[in-house]
Amino acid sequence: MSKEELDKKSMAALLGIASAWYEQMKSGEIPSISLPSRTKYNIEFDDASEVWKYGDKESMRTAASAKSATHLLKMAYVIGFIKQQLRENRSSTLREMYYISEGWKRAKFGAQDESNFLIEDLEILSDVPREGFHLHPEENGASIYGPMRIREETRRGMKTLHCQDDVGQAGYTIPNNVENIEFVDHDAKFVIAIETGGMYDRLIENGFDEEYNAILVHLKGQPARSTRRMLNKISSNWDLPVLVFTDGDPWSYRIFGSVAYGAIKSAHMSELLVTPKAQFIGLQPSDIRDYNLPSDKLSDKDVEALKAELTDPRFATDYWRKQINLQLSLGLKSEQQAFAARGLDFVTKKYLPARLTDMGILKS
Q1: How far is CA 287 from CA 26, 205, 209, 335, 336, in A?
Q2: Is 99 a catalytic residue?
Q3: Catalytic residue from among 22, 99, 200, 253
Q4: Which member of 10, 259, 310, 361 has the greatest number of CB atoms within 10 A?
Q5: Are 75 and 180 within one domain?
């Protein structure tokens, strides 16, 4: 879909929401909206698309209560703000929109989390991603490095670049909106998405990308939507294996989950943001034991998070149950950089090749 087509779809969808309220009031009804319940108890696996989506449980927000009426008022202001952006072909960050609401009197937001949540509501109601509203987060800065060539639309026209030969050591910076990127060609065998900058740099410095024809993606912790969209597009365009390399703790497992299963709050965008074929190649609790890695004790919050993952349907596999229960019994967690205790080349010469071979990505 071109930018012009997306702008038209966004405008029509948003005005449709406002028109529905008008028709409700015109017929004597109280304005309302219906939205899916955004909890792990209302996500279901969709066999056709192989992604997790919202189930049938919904919640109604109606202007009959002061709290919900205020929410609809804020939504109306946001729709007006986005409408103006689309007409003027301008964009803003989510943070800027939050501050702009300072002038909306009773419709102002109390915190950015509230305004972000409302944008997610509009995505669900309109079936348009926030990029279609010309809204984006603060600077992402996630990067990609490897044997692939892309073509990108810039202010000076289309530009083609190779993500090894034409970029610096930090790689190509993934933009907030990746829809204008065309995937030209590649010489890669697989993709590794890496949680930490230190490990991303280690793999580049050790020449892992060249030796194994690997595309390396720095997730920068919990990956931004643009990063997840980039992985989704690489996977769907080139059908390359995507591996997620993280620390060995419950929060890092959720990083993998956001790539492979999607986040609960963005389940409505799963087909665009999720890479269902992604596999976990991160530090496992069994690695802490088998390699005697430097580690830290699990905190109470870590334990609580691990137990929550055991009840999460997205982690309901034998592999995850076994590893999480092992971690709870060990009472330990560890970081990617802990492999350095076995030498700076251990992770690229020993650990990753062994895991990739076990997973069938590399031939033994």
Answers
A1: 64, 24, 23, 11, 11
A2: yes
A3: 99
A4: 259
A5: no
